[in-house]
Amino acid sequence: MVSPSNRVDARLAAVKMEACTAEHAPENEESRRAEFGSSSEADEEEICYLSGKPYFDIIIGKTHLDRPRGLYTPISMTQRLPRATIPAVLRHGGKTWNMSYCGDAARPRFDYKWKAFVADNNLKIGDGCVFELMEPDSKNAVFKVMIVRGDIPPELQALIDSRGKSEAVPIVID
């Protein structure tokens, strides 16, 4: 059985912020299973390698979940996309979510339909998302999205929750 921490470690290794190219990826499903394990739970969210195309990443915070206007994109990505509103597609887990990329807004972003992606994928604070731009052109943008769950084991969550609630239990920063 693959432990939850091993699954998370495998996913984190798969989406390192260093651009992994196809030449570094396991050549086939059999070698991927040998490297990362073959648990059906581990296969629930397929491990994907970055293909060398432009990407950006976020760690989900409260504002990503509550922002009514959608998900703002970083300047490194907005420079690669048109300064116009175009159709955008997010792909994850064999499903697609259609929305608009508002490149002509004061702060370029995915529109309010981003919330459907959040809800359908049960994204929570602490989860990581990597958005890889697969098909950029002036008429649409297609992103492959990889999700790395940021679940904290319950035994550690209790410790985290207990810190900083009073002077008796401070948060210590070394």
Characterise this structure.
By secondary structure, the protein is α+β, with helices and mostly antiparallel strands. Helices cover 28% and strands 24% of the residues. It has 7 helices and 7 strands; from the N terminus they run αααβαβαβββαββα. It has a 7-stranded mixed sheet. Residues 1-44 have low confidence and may be disordered.
Write the layout of secondary structure elements.
Blueprint: H1 4-14, H2 29-36, H3 40-43, E1 55-59, H4 62-66, E2 71-72, H5 75-78, E3 85-92, E4 95-102, E5 109-110, H6 114-120, E6 128-136, E7 141-148, H7 154-162
Parallel strand pairs: 3-7
Antiparallel strand pairs: 1-6, 2-5, 3-4, 4-5, 6-7
Please describe the structure with a list of short key phrases separated by commas or semicolons.
24% strand; elongated; 28% helix; 7 helices; disordered N terminus; 174 residues; alpha+beta; seven-stranded mixed sheet
Measure the end-to-end span. 37 Å
| Separate helix tally | 7
The strands making up the biggest β-sheet line up spatially as 1-6-7-3-4-5-2
Would you tell me the structural class of the helices and strands?
A: alpha+beta
User: Mean pLDDT score, rounded?
Assistant: 75
How many β-strands, per DSSP?
Answer: 7
Task: List low-confidence stretches.
Answer: 1-44
Largest sheet: 7 strands, mixed
Overall geometry comes to elongated
How much helical structure, as a percent, in the residues?
Answer: 25-40%
